[in-house]
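Entry 14. Structure prediction run on the chain below.
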Amino acid sequence: MTVMSPIATDRTPAQAPADDSRSVVLRALLRNKLAVASLTVLALLLAAAVFAPLIAPYDPNAQNLLLRLRPPAWHDGGSSAHLLGTDQLGRDMLSRVIHGARVSLLVGAGAALLAGVIGTAVGLTSGYFGGWADRTLMRLADVQLAFPSLLLALAIVGFVGSSLWYVILILGFTGWVSYARVVRSEVMSLRSRDFVTEARAIGVTDVTIMRRHLLPNVMAPLATIGTLHVAAAIVAEASLSYLGLGVPKETVTWGGMLSDGQLYLGTSWWVAVFPGIALMLTSLAINITGDALRDVADPKAYRR
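Output returned:
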């Protein structure tokens, strides 16, 4: 773990080791072929989500009952005009899968970012000050853990109603505990180090110490947790949409597509299978990337 000097300036000799450390991390990540493949998948998904209106061949909500439940292009009766077939309302499956990536990635990234901000603030405060602040905040975390996150999200969404931003806020506010506990543990091991003691001795404020000298040293575990939380939030959003309690029905989501397609698994399997595959590949790619980040954050991994 890199320790930040309390009196380091923008042009200190410590920059060279930091640059070397980043290059070592990058080389270790690139040696993991599975991680490179996962990053490639995520890059393609991100590009599809950003440029969905340009990539998707049709409006994802455009209906044509004359073309309902058409099979994929390679299947008997399929057409190249609808590569992945159509659903029960004649909507193009490929267009819906592409547009569904927008909601999933937005919810995953938004919920992970919100949970990370809350959890990091709580963990820094709890680990640095200790005492009553630590006891109060950790008991609050225990209360949060006493409620299953998905069940709590279901209850809140059922009470406040369906909305994309409500889902992001709920998943963010119910996912901060893991960040807080990891940051607290790291900060408690750092607060007695010499660079923190020296910073206090020269009159650096507590807020500055946490922001400039402790926060940079917990970014590696935060990145790992955040990556894994993105996948968890995507699956949670899909679960809520599958139950009809996620984003509004007119918004295309993979979970909503799974819910619509479950009735046609025996006759028109593609209506549920393709959004399921998209959800599985996205979650798998994010989890593999998170595991790779965790491995390269461990100095022992550089010697493998």
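The first helix runs from residue 15 to 31.
Filed with the rest of this week's runs.
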